[in-house]
Amino acid sequence: MTKNLLTATRANLVKLAAVVWFSGVVILLFKSTIILIEAVKLGAPVSVAVSTVITGLVIGMIKAKYLFIRICKSNIKRIYSLKSPKIWQFYRIRFFFFLFLMITLGNYAYRLFHNSIFLLFTLAVLELSISTALLISGKCFREIRIRP
After folding, report:
1. Which of 66, 62, 72 is nearest to 18 (CA)?
2. Where are the domains of the chain?
């Protein structure tokens, strides 16, 4: 009985991977918006905030094309190559470690930078670019036919 609780279909693992992937889009978009609003409240010109958004989007497109799409496709391929998939295998352990590290460092950087307009914009570009790269590369989940 325990064995059945821990096993999963490859299709469900891909779906779980997509949920985590697109959750990152929403969370990082929300965080970057809050950072931009805070920077403008500190006195930064709105034109600089707009430039920051454009920069984040462009860098995100580049990241998607040259890195994130490859990572996403590689993970989907890995999932479908699993012989006996388990529920936790929708990403590798190192992904979860890296995710934890990014969340921790992002929160630390925000606390550290909260009084500096320039550093807030820098952090907003970073988070917006990752959000954009995740969104664009998420097309990999739509392109595949989810098979059992």
Report:
1. 72
2. 2-141
